[in-house]
């Protein structure tokens, strides 16, 4: 029988292509710029790329280990790498963590979470969020943890709209440039398997609630900070839409997006950095109920 | 214009046998063409060749009457050819069509006639080829059916992709004002009976009040009305990426595929029946080509790895009858059974699935 060329490999490659501009900017902001300003050495220059490579290698190795050593299913190596979205998960985790994250903690948690997730049959919770939240919690045990890089920690800024758009806000390593994020969103939007409704409705919901909130507290200037920092938009576009853990029905995906937007706002009042990850994790756990209800 | 090639020289003809049939001949009896061999009151098995009835044989777990063809096509009684096929009364026509299994489960008071010139399976060229080769016969038969059965609305549907057919029909339809030509974009699955009826009418019960025929049926009816003999041939698309070009062949119903492959000197093993999306692969060339076989594809076969469902929803989005194939695959409850009943087995869900899950296989198992 003939089959279409839709495949996990193709979907993964589209994700990677859409992330390239963000990765380049993240490397500039958290590596090259700091090196040029002499805040960091060669290791600091390469640190963003090291995170990215470790994330990708862990994603690949988890799939290979699972296929070759646990399932003992000797597939072609490329088929094995793209047998699930774990490569993308590894890359996404490296995108959203802070540049101040300990590389060993990042590697261990990412590896353990991704490997365990392979054993959970029909897992329907967002693995990326679990890993990010765990990394953040562990990093907070050791020291006062921040998403600002060393340059941002040592200088005070008053950011305007363009600054936010060009990625000068705080957030994960590769998540801050809003213009490149929009380009990535457009690339994903054109692919058949991308869950557009989730990204759109989570953004719209969060935007509306944030505007109302800012009007209520009489601080409309805070709206850009709410929207464009802490990787919230990135989470809506790349993490909330993760295929296995999100709703696939038409109405279900709209409800899913709205719930992500609402929960993100509620958690934002508690912890802005982790609001979107917590929200996506909660809603992804509810996902099977949403799909059954709106099936 | 594609020509139709003939393969009518099969030594043995295999006609379907069921336990409940009353059999009217003994083994080794000489049988004339158009002789009624067996029946259960609903199905009538007529011989489509003359020759000796050898007995009952099992081919691929199905039982068949085997007739040794003497290539004489002798008739027990010679019947004249009717010049005007619209000179039947309604009752006579219905009885004649019933006699040759062409008026099964059809409401006699139906007022809508749908004629499909759209192939049900992807890459089939049978219907467009038949339209090009038998335009007048087809239009005359449709016109006769409209007149005799007192049809109020007749839709003749084809796709815009078959531009030559569109031109031929536009040039000829002036003399058949009661036939309404409906053009469709060549979306896959539009050739499915229920999907086409749904597009053309707002009838909820697709089996009531509508007469649905394919071009192939119309040609059979033409021969029934003209000669009052059993439709003995079938038109099949022979295609696939291992053949130089696609062709339409005319074969006797009940021909063994092996004979056909030998005739065309085809030795490859990957043979698919009735389309590459919703058909099936046969592992044994001993396969009987009955009236339900519309196409044969001689293709290379690519092996696909199957992965866990990624919950993308593409199967649901692409389903032409708006059911949820994923739900049908993972659940076995009342709702999944409802879906199973609605499913037209078009195979799109399986085609688009990024995880290459055998969604149709599960459908077939549950069915």
Number of domains of chain A: 1
Strand residue percentage of chain A: under 5%
Order of helices and strands of chain A: HHHHHHHHHHHHHH
Main sheet of chain A, how many strands, which sense, barrel? none
- Global shape of chain A: globular
The radius of gyration computed from the alpha-carbon positions of chain A, rounded to a whole number of angstroms, is: 19 Å
Uncertain runs of chain A are: none
CATH topology (fold) name of the largest domain in chain B: Rossmann fold
Report the total helices of chain B.
12
CATH level 4 superfamily of the largest domain in chain B? NADH-ubiquinone oxidoreductase 51kDa subunit
Q: What fold name stands as the CATH topology of chain A?
A: Ammonium transporter fold
How many domains would you count in the coordinates of chain B? 3
Q: What share of the residues of chain B does DSSP label as strand, in percent?
A: 15-25%
Mean pLDDT across residues of chain A:
89
Mean pLDDT across residues of chain B: 87
Work out the helix count of chain A: 14
As a percent range, the share of helical residues of chain A equals 55-70%
Q: What is the CA-CA span between the terminal residues of chain B?
A: 41 Å
């Amino acid at each position: 029988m003939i089959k279409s060329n839709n495949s996990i490999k193709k979907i993964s490659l589209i994700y990677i292509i859409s992330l390239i501009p963000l990765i380049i900017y993240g490397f500039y902001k958290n590596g090259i710029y700091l090196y040029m300003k002499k805040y960091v050495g060669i290791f600091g220059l390469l640190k963003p790329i090291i995170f990215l490579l470790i994330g990708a290698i862990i994603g690949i190795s988890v799939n290979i280990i699972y296929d070759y050593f646990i399932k003992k299913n000797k597939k072609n190596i490329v088929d094995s790498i793209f047998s699930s979205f774990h490569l993308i998960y590894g890359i996404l985790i490296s995108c959203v963590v802070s540049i101040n994250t300990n590389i060993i903690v990042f590697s261990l948690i990412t590896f353990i979470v991704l490997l365990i997730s392979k054993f959970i049959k029909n897992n329907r919770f967002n693995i990326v969020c679990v890993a990010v939240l765990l990394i953040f919690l562990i990093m907070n045990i050791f020291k006062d943890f921040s998403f600002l890089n060393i340059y941002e920690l040592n200088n005070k800024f008053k950011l305007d709209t363009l600054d936010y758009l060009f990625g000068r806000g705080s957030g994960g390593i590769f998540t801050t440039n809003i213009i490149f994020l929009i380009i990535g969103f457009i690339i994903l939007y054109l692919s058949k398997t991308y869950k557009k409704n989730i990204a759109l409705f989570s953004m719209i919901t969060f935007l509306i609630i944030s505007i109302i909130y800012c009007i209520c507290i009489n601080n409309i200037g805070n709206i850009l900070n709410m929207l464009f920092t802490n990787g919230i938009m990135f989470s809506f576009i790349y993490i909330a839409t993760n295929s296995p853990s999100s709703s696939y029905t038409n109405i279900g995906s709209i409800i899913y997006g709205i719930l992500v937007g609402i929960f993100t706002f509620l958690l934002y009042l508690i912890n802005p950095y982790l609001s979107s990850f917590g929200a996506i994790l909660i809603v992804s756990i509810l996902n099977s109920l949403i799909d059954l209800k709106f099936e | 214009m594609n020509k139709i090639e003939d393969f009518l020289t099969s030594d043995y003809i295999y006609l379907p046998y069921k336990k409940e049939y009353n059999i009217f001949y003994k083994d080794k009896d000489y049988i004339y063409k158009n002789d009624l061999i067996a029946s259960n009151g609903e199905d009538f098995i007529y011989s489509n060749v003359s020759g000796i009835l050898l007995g009952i044989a099992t081919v691929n777990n199905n039982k068949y009457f085997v007739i040794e063809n003497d290539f004489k096509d002798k008739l027990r009684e010679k019947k004249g050819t009717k010049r005007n096929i619209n000179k039947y009364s309604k009752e006579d026509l219905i009885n004649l069509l019933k006699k040759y299994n062409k008026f099964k489960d059809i409401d006699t008071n139906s007022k809508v006639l749908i004629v499909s010139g759209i192939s049900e399976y992807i890459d089939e060229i049978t219907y467009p080829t038949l339209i090009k080769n038998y335009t007048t016969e087809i239009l005359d038969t449709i016109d006769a059916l409209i007149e005799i059965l007192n049809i109020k609305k007749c839709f003749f549907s084809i796709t815009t992709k078959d531009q030559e057919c569109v031109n031929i029909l536009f040039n000829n339809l002036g003399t058949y004002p009661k036939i309404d030509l409906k053009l469709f974009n060549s979306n896959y699955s539009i050739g499915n009976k229920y999907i086409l009826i749904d597009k053309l009418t707002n009838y909820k019960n697709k089996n009531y009040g509508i007469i649905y025929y394919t071009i192939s049926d119309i040609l059979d009816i033409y021969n029934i009305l003209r000669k009052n003999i059993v439709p003995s041939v079938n038109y099949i698309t022979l295609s696939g990426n291992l053949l130089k070009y696609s062709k339409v062949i005319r074969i006797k119903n009940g021909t063994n595929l092996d004979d056909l492959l030998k005739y065309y000197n085809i030795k490859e093993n990957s043979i698919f029946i009735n389309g590459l999306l919703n058909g099936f692969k046969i592992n044994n060339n001993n396969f009987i080509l009955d009236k339900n076989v519309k196409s044969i594809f001689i293709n290379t076969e690519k092996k696909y790895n199957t992965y866990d469902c990624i919950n993308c929803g593409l199967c649901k989005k692409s389903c032409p009858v708006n059911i949820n194939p994923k739900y049908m695959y993972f659940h076995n409850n009342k709702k999944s059974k409802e879906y199973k009943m609605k499913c037209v087995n078009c195979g799109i869900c399986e085609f688009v699935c990024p995880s290459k899950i055998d969604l149709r296989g599960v459908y077939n198992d549950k069915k």
